[in-house]
From TrEMBL:
<dbReference type="GO" id="GO:1990281">
    <property type="term" value="C:efflux pump complex"/>
</dbReference>
<feature type="region of interest" description="Disordered">
    <location>
        <begin position="189"/>
        <end position="214"/>
    </location>
</feature>
<protein>
    <submittedName>
        <fullName>Efflux RND transporter periplasmic adaptor subunit</fullName>
    </submittedName>
</protein>
<feature type="domain" description="Multidrug resistance protein MdtA-like barrel-sandwich hybrid">
    <location>
        <begin position="84"/>
        <end position="336"/>
    </location>
</feature>
<dbReference type="Pfam" id="PF25917">
    <property type="entry name" value="BSH_RND"/>
</dbReference>
<feature type="domain" description="YknX-like C-terminal permuted SH3-like">
    <location>
        <begin position="427"/>
        <end position="488"/>
    </location>
</feature>
<feature type="compositionally biased region" description="Basic and acidic residues">
    <location>
        <begin position="189"/>
        <end position="210"/>
    </location>
</feature>
<feature type="compositionally biased region" description="Low complexity">
    <location>
        <begin position="490"/>
        <end position="503"/>
    </location>
</feature>
<keyword id="KW-0732">Signal</keyword>
<feature type="compositionally biased region" description="Low complexity">
    <location>
        <begin position="510"/>
        <end position="526"/>
    </location>
</feature>
<comment type="similarity">
    <text>Belongs to the membrane fusion protein (MFP) (TC 8.A.1) family.</text>
</comment>
<dbReference type="InterPro" id="IPR058625">
    <property type="entry name" value="MdtA-like_BSH"/>
</dbReference>
<dbReference type="InterPro" id="IPR006143">
    <property type="entry name" value="RND_pump_MFP"/>
</dbReference>
<feature type="compositionally biased region" description="Polar residues">
    <location>
        <begin position="534"/>
        <end position="547"/>
    </location>
</feature>
<dbReference type="Pfam" id="PF25989">
    <property type="entry name" value="YknX_C"/>
</dbReference>
<feature type="region of interest" description="Disordered">
    <location>
        <begin position="490"/>
        <end position="547"/>
    </location>
</feature>
<dbReference type="InterPro" id="IPR058637">
    <property type="entry name" value="YknX-like_C"/>
</dbReference>
Length: 547
C-alpha cells in the first residue's frame, strides 16, 4: 500500500483505491517498520513506504503586444446653440405690439415687437417741417434780391425767436416755474465733456515730452482724471433724468430743442444775409439746408428704433416683453438661438484632464440613452475663478434635433492615453507588497520578472519597463507557480514569437491550445482541487484589480 503526500496541503494517509497512477516526480523514502510519517516518529506508524509527489505544471505562453490604450472620464456638460443673440431695444418705451413668443421660429429681419413712438413721431414731423422750411428759405434767399432776402431772414428770425420763447415758457410752466432739470444737466454734461477733452489733450501732449517734468505730467494727468470723473457724473445724471421722464415732458423738451435749432438757423441765416456777399449767402443757405436734411435723417433713424427686428434667424428661446408693459434697454427682450448649425456642448475639466485633451479630439455626449459624437473646438487656458476648472467646448457633429439647448448631458472623454505602448493582459500581473510582476518562461523554468506599469483598463495594462517584445509570459495560473519552478509547455503550445500589434494571436491561426492531458494511466484530477484552484485564481484576480 502507498501513501501520497500532497505538497500544497501536506496531508498524508489518503489511500488510492481507484485504479491508475497520477503522473508524479517521486522520491521514495525507505522507512522501516514503525517509521514515522508526517508529524514525527510514531505519527503514522505502520503505514509502510511513503511517496511524496509534486504535480507537473503545464503552462501556456504569450508575448507583449504593441498598441494604444485610453481611459475615459465622465463630465457633466450643457448643450448650447452654435449662435445665440440677446435682443435689447435701443430705446425704453411702452410696448404696443408683440408678434412672436418663446418657441417660435423667426427669420433675420422679422419685426419682433413695436413700442410707443408718439414722441419720436412728433420729433420727426418737426424735423420734416424744418427741412421743408429750409428748402423754401433757400429758394427765397437765392432767388430774390438782397433786400428781399434780408427782410425774409429777419422775419424768420423773429418767428423763430417767438417759437423759442413759447416753447421755453411751456416747459418752464410744466416744471412749476423752474428751469428744466434735464436741459440744465445736459448743458453741464456738455461743458464737462469739453473740459475733459481739453485736459486729455494737454496730458497726451505732455506725457512723452522730455521737457515736461514728472510733477507737471502728474498734475496734468490728475486734472484729466478729475475732468473725466466730473463728466461721468453729469452723464449719469442725464441718463437718470431721461429714464424718469414721462411722455409730456419729453414732448415739451423736444419742442424746445427744435425751437432752439430753428432759432439758431434763422439767426445764422440773418447774419449771413445782413453781412455777407451773395456767394457767402449761397454757402450758408446750402449749409442750413444740409443741416436740416441731417436732422430729418436723424429723426427718422430715431423713429425706427421703436421697432425691434430679429438680427438672426433661429428659434426664440425666451421672451421678456408683453403688450402694454415697459421695455427697457437694460433687459433682453428676446433671446434667439440659431440652430441651423450644429449645437455645441460645454463642460468643465480639471487641469490634468484639460491638459490631456486637445482641440480636435472626439468626445461622446450621452442623453436619454442616445450617444452623439462631438469634436473639441476650444479649451480655455485660464481656470474659472469661481470653480477653478477649465471650460471646454465641443461641437456636436449631428444631433438630429433631439437635443435642446440648456439641458444637461453626460460627456465622456479620453483623459489618459498611451500610444504605441507595450501592453499585456491585467490577468497575467501579480503583486507583492505593491510590486507588480509576471512569470516568464525560459528553458522549462518559470521566472518571476518584476515590471514597472503605467495606465491600465479593466483588460490591459501598459508595461513601462521589465519586459522585452519577445518576453514569453506565462498565462496559466497555478497555486504552485513560483520563481524557479520547473514547468512544461501545454500540449500544442509552442513558444510564441514577439507580437507586433495589440490583439495578435501567439497560436497558429484558427487553433486553440488544447488543455493539458494526463499521461496514460494517470488518475483523474480531483474536482475539489479544481474548485480550490478556481477560488484561489479568483482571489488573485481580485487582488490584482485592487492593486
Amino acid at each position: 500500500m502507498k501513501w501520497i503526500v500532497n505538497k500544497k496541503k501536506c496531508v498524508a494517509g489518503v489511500a488510492l483505491a481507484a485504479a491508475g497512477v497520477v503522473t508524479v516526480s517521486t522520491v521514495v523514502l525507505a522507512m522501516g517498520p514503525g517509521g514515522g510519517g508526517p508529524g514525527g516518529p510514531g505519527g503514522m506508524g505502520g503505514m509502510g513506504d511513503v511517496e511524496i509527489g509534486q504535480s507537473v505544471i503545464s503552462v501556456k505562453l504569450t508575448t507583449p503586444t504593441t498598441g494604444s490604450l485610453s481611459r475615459d472620464t465622465e463630465f457633466i456638460g450643457t448643450i448650447e446653440p452654435a449662435e445665440s443673440v440677446s435682443v435689447y431695444p435701443e430705446v425704453s418705451a411702452k410696448v404696443t405690439a408683440v408678434y412672436f413668443s418663446a418657441g417660435d421660429t423667426v427669420q433675420a429681419g422679422d419685426l419682433l415687437f413695436e413700442m410707443d413712438d408718439s414722441d419720436a413721431q412728433l420729433s420727426y414731423e418737426i424735423a420734416q417741417a424744418s427741412y421743408n422750411q429750409q428748402v423754401i428759405s433757400a429758394d427765397t434767399t437765392l432767388g430774390s434780391d438782397y433786400e428781399s432776402r434780408l427782410i425774409s431772414a429777419k422775419s424768420q428770425l423773429e418767428s423763430a425767436q417767438q417759437n423759442l420763447n413759447n416753447a421755453r415758457l411751456q416747459l418752464k410752466d410744466y416744471n412749476d416755474g423752474y428751469d428744466d432739470s434735464l436741459l440744465s444737466a445736459e448743458k453741464r454734461r456738455d461743458q464737462a465733456e469739453t473740459a475733459m477733452k481739453e485736459a486729455e489733450t494737454a496730458w497726451e501732449n505732455a506725457k512723452d515730452d522730455p521737457d515736461v517734468s514728472e510733477d507737471e505730467k502728474q498734475e496734468l494727468y490728475n486734472a484729466f482724471a478729475e475732468a473725466e470723473a466730473e463728466y461721468s457724473m453729469y452723464r449719469n445724471a442725464v441718463n437718470e433724468l431721461e429714464d424718469d421722464d414721462d411722455s409730456e415732458a419729453r414732448s415739451l423738451r423736444n419742442s424746445y430743442r427744435n425751437a432752439q435749432t430753428s432759432y439758431q438757423q434763422a439767426l445764422d441765416n440773418y447774419n449771413l444775409v445782413a453781412g455777407a456777399s451773395l456767394e457767402d449767402t449761397q454757402k450758408a443757405t446750402e449749409a442750413s439746408l444740409k443741416s436740416a436734411e441731417l436732422s430729418l435723417e436723424q429723426s427718422a433713424s430715431q423713429l425706427d428704433k421703436y421697432k425691434v427686428y430679429a438680427p438672426i434667424g433661429g428659434i426664440i428661446e425666451s421672451s421678456a416683453v408683453s403688450e402694454h408693459e415697459y421695455a427697457s434697454t437694460q433687459t433682453a427682450a428676446f433671446v434667439i438661438a440659431n440652430r441651423e448649425d450644429n449645437l455645441s456642448v460645454t463642460f468643465n475639466a480639471t487641469a490634468d484632464a484639460a491638459t490631456a485633451l486637445s482641440i480636435g479630439d472626439t468626445v461622446t455626449v450621452s442623453k436619454g440613452g442616445n450617444d452623439y459624437a462631438a469634436t473639441i473646438t476650444s479649451i480655455e487656458t485660464k481656470a474659472d475663478e469661481s470653480s477653478g476648472l477649465f471650460p471646454i467646448e465641443a461641437q456636436l457633429q449631428e444631433s438630429g434635433g433631439s437635443l435642446l439647448s440648456g439641458v444637461s448631458v453626460k460627456v465622456t472623454a479620453a483623459t489618459a492615453k498611451a500610444e504605441n505602448a507595450m501592453l499585456i493582459d491585467v490577468d497575467n500581473v501579480y503583486y507583492e507588497d505593491g510590486q507588480p510582476y509576471v512569470f516568464t518562461y525560459a528553458d522549462g523554468v518559470a521566472h518571476r520578472t518584476d515590471i514597472e506599469t503605467g495606465m491600465s483598463t479593466s483588460e490591459q495594462i501598459v508595461v513601462e519597463s521589465g519586459l522585452e517584445p519577445d518576453s514569453q509570459i506565462i498565462t496559466t495560473w497555478h497555486p504552485d507557480l513560483a520563481d524557479g519552478v520547473s514547468v512544461q509547455l501545454a500540449e500544442g503550445q509552442a513558444a510564441p514569437e514577439a507580437a507586433g500589434e495589440a490583439g495578435s494571436d501567439p497560436l497558429p491561426s484558427g487553433e486553440d491550445a488544447p488543455a493539458p492531458q494526463a499521461p496514460e494511466g494517470a488518475a483523474p484530477a480531483d474536482p475539489g482541487e479544481d474548485t480550490a484552484k478556481a477560488e484561489s485564481s479568483s482571489e488573485v484576480q481580485s487582488n490584482t484589480e485592487e492593486e
